[in-house]
Amino acid sequence: MESAAQNLHSLYLELGDLKGDFRNYNLYRFILKRLQGKSILDIGCGAGHFLHLVKEKGMTPFGLEENKELIELSKRLYNEDLGIIQGTAEKLNTLKNTYDSIVMIDVLEHIENDREILKNMREHLRDNGRIVILVPAYQLLYGKRDKNIGHFRRYTKSGLTEKIQNSGLKIVEARYWNMLGIVPYFIAEKILKKEFIVGFRGNKKKGVAGKFLNKTLFAWFNKIENPLSLGFGLSVLVVAEKQ
């Protein structure tokens, strides 16, 4: 798992801030609209990109992040207090606070006992509090990229909603996200047997074609992907509430 943590750190360094990352820039704004209340906990918050946006919106950010190097990266990128403490998702048990919303973005798949974590999340929600979870979709697509960054599994919408309901939460929304990603991901991981890498994400210097493609994808996610759901996608998003 140590190599998986190093791979994640390398990925965050490569992506830099959100300005050139069409995927996370639009994803985080998509998730922001689904939050509830003022106090927001992001479990596995990485370099703090999402928490920075939370703070910009006037909410109070809190974060849990296991990787110390990513916490240091968040300080260099944002130079502000994002409420991040070092620890795994399991450290949630030791926290005394409750929150209006708890977010896990591309994190639950890293946790072996995901059912236990979902129950713990419920216990740390205030009444009518909300969780928002995004995970990779379809076990069929499990491949080299998943292994290299420490994924135990991928999910279906029905499988994830069942686990969340069993933890005592009521489903508010469940949908797939990132329709465009499925075909290139399948070709790379299942046909070519290579790790799927999107080379034009992030702030690295791009040629004319790369700039055009990046701009087109920004527009796609903003105008089509986020407002619409066609019933499939590379990720699963579920929003649930504590009743």
What labels would you give this structure?
243 residues; Rossmann fold; seven-stranded mixed sheet
Structure overview:
The protein is an alpha/beta fold and 243 residues long. It has one domain (2-241): Vaccinia Virus protein VP39 (Rossmann fold, 3-Layer(aba) Sandwich). Helices cover 40% and strands 20% of the residues. It contains 9 helices and 7 strands; from the N terminus they run H-H-E-H-E-H-E-E-H-E-H-H-E-H-H-E. It has helices at residues 2-15, 22-32, 49-56, 68-78, 114-123, 144-148, 157-166, 182-191, 208-225, and strands spanning 39-43, 60-65, 84-86, 99-105, 125-136, 170-177, 235-241. Strands 3-2-1-4-5-7-6 form a 7-stranded mixed beta sheet, sandwiched between helices. Strand 4 (99-105), helix 5 and strand 5 (125-136) form a beta-alpha-beta unit. Helix 2 (22-32) packs parallel to helix 9. The longest helix has 18 residues, at 208-225. The protein is globular and about 50 Å long. The model has no long low-confidence stretch (mean pLDDT 90).
